[in-house]
Automatic annotation (TrEMBL), chain A:
One of its GO terms (biological process) is transmembrane transport. The chain crosses the membrane at residues 12-30, 92-119, 131-156, 176-197, 238-263, 283-309. Residues 96-306 form the ABC transmembrane type-1 domain. It is found in: Cell membrane. The lineage of its organism: Bacteria, Pseudomonadati, Pseudomonadota, Alphaproteobacteria, Hyphomicrobiales. Belongs to the binding-protein-dependent transport system permease family. This is ABC transporter permease. InterPro entries: BPD_transp_1_N, MetI-like, MetI-like_sf.
Length: 316, 295
């Protein structure tokens, strides 16, 4: 297993390098490149711009600049925000927890509902429920997340007045219950797409496991239906799901961005959009890089978990 | 003369195969529904603006915020008094065109990467596929927004940017398909005949992978329409006064209480169009999968 994990770690490092090259390329696409902020300053002459460019090392060959940028990235120096001159990592850090809270809650919801729908669909294959779940999943995948959020706000906040329309807590309250009430709508909205994906894969995985010999053996030795289902079918069907969760990370993170904007949730997505509005490129780049790194780490973690729970990989 | 008939007449086996696919597709009720939705929407967007009494840019100041089904404006008006129905149709032209064009670009590019990576394999394949993995590590919407913010937005640029962030899946599918086709006898024969690599890749291999490509391409249209909606909703996509389904929703949130139809109408159009393409893609997948006859 050590060998397998070292191999995966190596792959992730290679990917990290390629990801950083892409990030660097995108950064240099910015109008005027990293200089853009200074070019906007009134009364800035070309000579002054050239001097700043020289100070920032922007007149050197691109590979040299890339290497400089990448090593600083590894050392945790991600530049400073154009807006308040704070270090990029500090700015991002203050928004990270809100996003993780939203993503975490939403993922728990989607895994629970998705597993239930997928298992039931597989056990009652071709039933009305199965058919409805299939069609429902495809429609759910077709609904724009932000629009679903708008409709939810319209119904549950504006018309029924059951839930708050946005923000993470009420100013002056901030109790645990208050957080929970604010969390319900955005996390359910974000979960919709993932329930659809999760239930589809779960259904296939359960159908796959159900035809295996060891399930027949388990039934033959007289185990109850529940025991076969939970201890044998579910346990084995959930293994590929861990990998899927890792692969779904970019989608969940991207979905969080859109959901956060609709619900004015103070997370990374809101920060990303605000920074775009202010042309705060260091923060935009930082978020872009950090999201990719989070995804790489997530995939690596998923592989480790699978290796730990699946003896075929652990021993092979 | 005989040579001409030989060339114009397709091989009978191929025709039989095609008919099987068509039959299987026609048996797929959801796919037919999806196809119907798409056809109706395309026709509505093409013909609709000519049937309505209002132009999409006409500002009816006395009828601002009219609700749907109340006055002369079928689907109501927006904050400027523009006819929502007229804007919906014109926006549909843009959104569907952007979705379709982005699909074409990403399919061509993705297939190209996939076929080269799958055919050459080895180091070339590894480098190309790691590049695909790396691009997939970025949340699509983050990458899309960053690119859209850095590059001056125009409908063509938005299309290119959407394509630039959605070709990877097709590349993966094509690479896997080519890798398994590469070992087949007819490719060995082509190699033995001394055909150039380019000809083997594009005349022998790619046509045999067309099924999965078509399925992926259909689903890519759905995703591209959604992506356009996302970026335009957030203000970085298609810029007004040019309407798109996404930017019609851009200001809708602030009028959610007083004029909910501004949010509901374009959202329903997006959902319908995307559902249509997803249904058709799903139907095509089943129809092109020979195993589906067995169950």
């Amino acid at each position: 297993m050590v060998r397998f994990l070292l191999g995966r770690l190596w792959q992730s490092l290679v990917l990290l390098v390629i990801v950083s090259v892409i990030g660097f390329f995108v950064l240099n696409l910015a109008p005027g490149g990293p200089l853009s902020q200074f070019a906007l300053t009134p009364g800035m002459s070309d000579a002054q711009l050239a001097r700043i460019a020289h100070q920032m090392g922007l007149d050197r060959p691109l590979p040299v600049q890339y290497w400089e940028w990448f090593t600083r990235l590894l050392q945790g120096d991600w530049g400073r925000s154009y807006r308040d001159n704070q270090p990029v990592l500090t700015v991002i850090w203050s928004h990270l927890l809100a996003t993780l809270l939203l993503m975490g809650t939403s993922t728990v919801i989607s895994v629970l509902i998705g597993t239930w729908v997928g298992v039931l669909g597989a056990l009652r294959r071709y039933s009305v429920f199965d058919y409805a779940a299939t069609v429902g999943a495809m429609v759910a995948l077709s609904i724009p997340t932000f629009w679903f959020g708008l409709i939810a706000i319209y119904l549950f906040s504006l018309r029924l007045g059951w839930l708050p329309a946005g923000n993470m807590y009420t100013i002056g309250d901030g109790s645990l219950l208050d957080y929970a009430v604010h969390l319900i709508m955005p996390s359910v909205v974000l979960a919709l797409v993932n329930v659809a994906v999760w239930s589809r894969y779960m259904r296939t995985a359960v159908l796959d496991v159900m035809t295996q010999d060891f399930i027949r053996t388990a039934k033959a030795k007289g185990l109850t239906r529940t025991a076969v289902l939970t201890r044998h079918i579910l346990r084995n069907a959930l293994v590929p799901m861990v990998t899927l969760l890792g692969l779904q990370l970019p989608t969940i993170l991207g979905g969080a961005l859109v959901t956060e904007t609709v619900f004015t949730w103070p997370g990374m997505g809101r920060l990303f959009l605000d920074s775009l509005g202010y042309s705060d490129y260091p923060v935009v780049m930082g978020l872009l890089m950090l999201s990719a790194i989070l995804v790489l780490i997530g995939n690596l973690l998923a592989d480790i978990v699978v290796a730990v729970i699946d003896p075929r990989i652990r021993l092979g | 003369m005989t040579e001409m008939t030989f060339q114009t007449d397709p091989a009978p086996t191929e025709r039989w195969w095609q008919r099987r696919v068509v039959k299987r597709f026609l048996r797929h009720r959801l796919a037919l529904l999806g196809l119907a939705i798409i056809v109706v929407m395309v026709l509505a967007c093409l013909v609709g603006p000519h049937l309505l009494p209002f132009d999409d840019l006409y500002i009816d100041l006395r009828a601002r915020f009219s609700p749907p089904f109340t006055g002369a404006h079928l689907l109501g008006t927006d904050p400027l008094g523009r006819d929502v129905a007229a804007r919906l149709f014109m926006a549909g032209r843009i959104s569907l065109l952007v979705g379709f064009a982005a699909m074409l670009i990403s399919t061509v590019f993705g297939s190209l990467i996939g076929v080269v990576a799958g055919y050459y394999g080895g180091k070339v394949g590894a480098v190309l596929m790691r590049f695909v993995d790396a691009v997939l590590s970025f949340p699509q919407i983050f990458l899309l927004l960053a690119l859209a913010a850095f590059i001056k937005p125009s409908p063509i640029m938005i299309t290119v940017i959407i394509a630039a962030t959605s070709w990877m899946e097709i590349a993966r599918i094509v690479e896997a398909e080519i890798k398994s086709l590469r070992e087949r006898d007819f490719i060995l024969a082509a190699r033995t005949l001394g055909l150039p690599n380019a000809q083997i890749m594009f005349r022998e291999l790619l046509p045999n992978a067309i099924g999965p490509i078509i399925v992926a391409a259909t689903l890519t249209v759905a995703r591209a329409i959604l992506l356009e909606a996302y970026v335009s909703f957030l203000g970085y996509g298609i810029q007004p006064p040019l309407p798109s389904w996404g930017n019609m929703l851009n200001g809708a949130q602030q009028y959610l209480d007083s004029a909910p139809w501004l949010a509901i109408v374009p959202g329903v159009a997006i959902t319908l169009a995307v559902t249509g393409f997803n249904f058709v893609g799903d139907g095509l997948r089943d129809a092109l999968d020979a195993r589906s006859d067995l169950t």
